[in-house]
Specification:
The complex is a heterodimer of chains A (115) and B (773). With 115 residues, chain A is an all-alpha fold. Chain A has a single domain, classed as Helix Hairpins, CATH 1.10.287. Chain A is built from three helices and no strands. In chain A, helix 1 runs antiparallel to helix 2 and helix 2 packs antiparallel against helix 3. Chain B has 773 residues and is mainly alpha-helical. Chain B has 33 helices and two strands. Chain B folds into four domains: 525 residues, no CATH class; 69 residues, no CATH class; 71 residues, no CATH class; 58 residues, no CATH class. Chain B has a two-stranded antiparallel sheet. The chains are: A mainly alpha (115), B mainly alpha (773). Chains A and B meet through helix 1, helix 2 and helix 3 of A and helix 25, helix 27, helix 28, helix 29 and helix 30 of B.
Chain lengths: 115, 773
């Protein structure tokens, strides 16, 4: 099962990087999103994959060995929320830049002066 | 304990400075001079007794100790530093009376004084280095005191780079010594060193140390910083560039010469460099019109002579070098202060501009005469005494070397006398060109008293038996072999050396005629080309350094996100490749066993799910419009949520669903209005990017596999699972971890989110405000 996830993580990372290397700022944000998905999935996979054993105590599962590892999930949860914050800020920043400079091209940002 | 006091009392003045900021200048100067006076008092009262050493382990593993010791010579040098320092302090207070940054002057002046005393008294070479660099730093600020002038800034840089660079060589040399002997405490070093024989390693260490000494003491070819540093205020030149800082190198040679006395390279380098510098400095001084620069060249020349004498290294030579060092400190500090008072009173820096000064102001004439006589080494002055001592000892050496050195010294002295003649005669001329009258007020008369005092000291010392005795006491320490009888014999013999006046007489006659020749020749003030060459090499290398570093910076910091990302990715790839290759076998076996032993079967649903996600990824990349790309991104995100759901992470799945919805709507909200813009990379760049990304993806996939197969530490999760229900009373462990076990993390996370929210809001609002305007 892990090999399939490994392929997925690889795809997410390479696609994310490819998008970030483009000239559009919009694509930069998309790339960031993909890479953060990739990172989340990497941590999740590294923590071990188990089916149908959620880390919740109930009447059925009261023995600790029968549930999946909760720690990576806690990490990933934090990561998802933080990456949303970053994405939101980045989006608005790109929007502002576009409004101010009237361009979507990252390479136009080399100079700090307004044209 | 007292020895520590002597070193740190000047630093007390630095601290005191912050308390007396608001007082008037005279009161401030007096209060600040109290700690050096105390230090002077202590060192004088201990001059004839043994000051106890002070030793405190600081960083014993690195060989750095707070270790101070004092010999008679060190104490005497310390007294010189303090006495001259206090005089110059008062001179500077008058000289810089209108300067707004007088306080910063005081700060660096006393810092310098303390660190110079530190150099003199420290017995640990690393400690000495610390003070050594501190003097370089202080001198940088003192030379650049008039920092609004470009010249001053430039020369301050020059001095700092050269002496600081030399300091680094010195440190390297010390470290090599430490590696070789295991200690850098001077007394122990002396014992350990006699046994070790010379080797390539040792020779390298010695030459590095010599490089440090030569840069500090302005030896050829590093001498040019000293004349350039004459942009400093006159008191700084008097203190740093004649009496103390440039002597630090010479002083270190004194300290090290008993240790390195068996090394041929040490003597050879010192003699050749010193000898040539002596000659060259004197020659340059003959042709220089700027008073202070000319004086700086004579200083360079004397420093060369001192270095050369120590290089010869017999005890008699070292004794005469010591005498010369003190004599030079007195008259040269006086001369620089004198140049300062001329500059203060007439606002002229050049000899040719102050024609007629001597006749108008007899006080100036007397001072100049006395100081110049000291410089030329005329009988009855202290420096004559020192020079006679020198020639006397030189005649006792019977070797070719001695003959060459004697010849060199005679020639150098002739040139120096020539300079003296010029210095005395040019201002005697009548000022024909302009009807300029020099303005003199009380301050200028006050100023001239201090150089006058120095000139008188130079005359008084040989006349007073008590004072001469102070200097005689230097020799028994150096010449332990001679008995008390012999010692008195030598000293009485000195009084009858007037037979040796003949070479001196030749020197004077030749020197005076040389000087007159240069006065009439009148094509002065052109920098001699050997000095100009050294300056040019220095400037070229500085320029090249700037250009090259600019080029490198521009290459890496080119402002293109693409190249930053590429560099970063390539570096990551390189590192991961190296580590994978290094531990390939372990990783391989781990991954194989992991894949073979996990029971999870891959179901058809998984395949479908993952292919949907991958399709989404491709959709994001190849989407023609922004809206399509955003929808595909949403597909990927929801796919992730489903993965979380299948693999027992319901909390994650819920969060992911919510967040993905928010993200997609935000994307649409923000980018809906913006026009489409299709920007393309060049074909070559595109392929390049594709290759890098593909490799990066493979590496990350590999990383995922190995990360899930390797467990290096025991998982700490069992702690959370066992405590969650009983102690935190929560069934959902992930929730309990977030809000209870690691509650502070979550608080931090909320803070980050809040900041991002505020930032987003501010950016949006700013736009609206602008619209209103």
């Amino acid at each position: 099962m892990e090999w399939l996830f490994a392929i997925l993580v690889g795809c997410l990372y390479s696609a994310g990087l490819y998008l970030m290397l483009q000239r559009n700022m919009f694509k930069l944000v998309l790339g960031m999103c993909l890479i953060s998905h990739g990172a989340n999935l990497l941590i999740f996979t590294a923590g071990g994959l188990t089916r149908n054993l959620p880390p919740i105590f109930s009447e059925v599962t009261s023995v600790t060995s029968q549930i999946t590892d909760p720690l990576p999930q806690a990490f990933v949860l934090t990561a998802i929320v933080i990456s949303f914050g970053v994405t939101a800020f980045l989006l608005v920043l790109v929007h502002r830049t576009h409004k101010t400079l009237n361009t979507d091209d990252i390479d136009d940002l080399i100079k700090t002066d307004l044209q | 304990m007292f020895i520590l006091l002597i070193v740190f009392l000047p630093f007390l003045s630095v601290i005191l400075l912050s308390g007396v900021f608001s007082l008037n200048k005279i009161l401030r100067a007096i209060i600040l001079s109290i700690p050096p006076f105390l230090a002077l008092f202590i060192s004088m009262s201990y001059l004839n007794k043994q000051l106890p050493i002070f030793q405190l382990n600081w960083l014993p593993t690195l060989g750095i100790d707070l270790y101070f010791e004092s010999s008679y010579f060190q104490l005497l040098f310390g007294i010189f530093i303090l006495t001259i320092g206090i005089f110059i302090h008062f001179f500077a207070t008058i000289y810089l009376q209108k300067d707004p940054s007088l306080n910063s002057w005081f700060f660096w002046f006393f810092t310098f004084m303390g660190s110079m005393l530190g150099i003199v008294f420290s017995a640990n070479l690393f400690l000495l280095f610390l003070f050594w660099e501190l003097t370089s730093l202080a001198s940088f600020f003192l030379i650049g005191h008039y920092h609004e002038q470009e010249e001053a800034r430039k020369s301050a840089w020059e001095a700092l780079l050269i002496t600081g660079g030399g300091g680094l060589c010195l440190l390297t040399g010390f470290i090599m010594l430490f590696i070789l002997t295991g200690t850098v405490n001077l007394p122990e070093l002396q014992d350990k060193f006699n046994s070790s024989e010379s080797s390539f390693f040792l020779n390298t260490a010695v030459s590095l140390i010599l490089l440090g000494i030569m840069t500090k003491s302005a030896q050829y070819p590093f001498h040019f910083w000293l004349p350039d540093a004459m942009t400093a205020p006159a008191p700084a030149s008097a203190y740093l560039h004649s009496a103390t800082m440039v002597k630090a190198g010479v002083f270190l040679t004194f300290r090290l010469s008993p240790i390195f006395s068996n090394i041929y390279l040490w003597h050879a380098l010192l003699i050749t460099c010193g000898g040539f510098t002596f000659f060259w400095g004197a020659f340059c001084s003959l042709r220089e019109d700027s008073i202070k620069k000319a004086l700086a060249y004579t200083t360079v020349s004397t420093l060369g002579l001192l270095t050369c004498l120590i290089g010869i290294g017999t005890p008699e030579m070292i004794y005469s070098a010591m005498l010369l060092l003190f004599a030079h400190a007195i008259y040269k500090a006086g001369l620089f202060l004198f140049a300062g008072s001329i500059e203060f009173s007439t606002h002229h820096k050049y000899l040719s501009k102050i024609k007629g000064l001597w006749l108008k102001q007899p006080l100036f004439l007397i001072t100049a005469l006395l100081l110049i006589l000291s410089l030329a080494g005329v009988p009855l002055t202290f420096s004559f005494y020192a020079k006679e001592e020198l020639i006397h000892t030189l005649f006792q050496l019977d070797s070719i070397n001695a003959l060459i050195v004697t010849l060199l010294i005679v020639i150098g002295n002739i040139l120096l006398v020539g300079f003296a003649t010029r210095f005395l005669i040019i201002p005697l001329y009548k000022n024909e060109n302009r009807e300029e009258t020099f303005q003199f007020n009380l301050s200028s008369y006050l100023l001239i008293t201090i150089p006058l005092l120095f000139s008188l000291i130079g005359i008084v010392i040989p006349l007073s038996p008590y004072l001469t005795d102070i200097f005689h006491k230097l020799s028994p320490e150096l010449l332990p072999n001679i008995t008390e009888n012999n010692y008195t014999e030598i000293t009485t013999k000195h009084n009858q050396t007037y037979l040796l006046l003949l070479p001196s007489f030749i020197t004077w006659v030749a020197g005076i005629s040389f000087g007159l020749y240069f006065i009439f020749k009148n094509n002065i003030s052109k920098e001699p080309h050997l000095t100009a060459l050294a300056t040019r090499i220095y400037q070229q290398s500085i320029n090249q350094l700037l250009i090259q570093s600019d080029r490198i910076t521009r290459f890496f910091q080119n402002g293109k996100l693409r190249s930053y990302l590429q560099t970063f990715t390539l570096a990551v790839l390189l590192v991961s490749f190296i580590s994978v290759i290094a531990e390939s076998e372990i990783i391989q076996s781990n991954i194989l066993s992991h894949i073979l032993h996990t029971e999870h079967k891959t179901t058809t649903y998984d395949f479908i799910l993952i292919s949907i996600i991958i399709a989404g990824i491709f959709g994001v990349i190849f989407a023609k419009t922004k809206l399509t790309a955003v929808i595909c991104l949403g597909l990927v995100g929801y796919g992730m949520a489903v993965i979380f759901l299948i693999f027992s992470a319901p909390d994650l799945a819920m969060t992911q669903f919510i967040i993905e919805t928010l993200t997609v709507s935000l994307f649409v909200f923000v980018f809906y209005h913006l026009p489409e813009q299709h920007l393309h990379r060049r074909r070559f760049t595109k392929y390049q990017n594709l290759i890098i990304c593909a490799i990066f993806g493979v590496v990350m996939g590999f990383l995922t596999l190995s990360a899930s197969s390797i467990q290096t530490h025991l998982s700490i999760s069992s702690y959370f699972t066992t405590k969650s229900l009983h102690e935190a009373h929560g069934g959902n462990i992930v929730n309990v971890i977030l809000v209870d076990f690691r509650g502070f993390d979550t608080l931090g996370e909320i803070t980050v989110l809040a900041i991002a929210g505020i930032g987003t809001y501010a950016l949006l609002r700013y736009q609206r405000l602008k619209k209103h305007e």
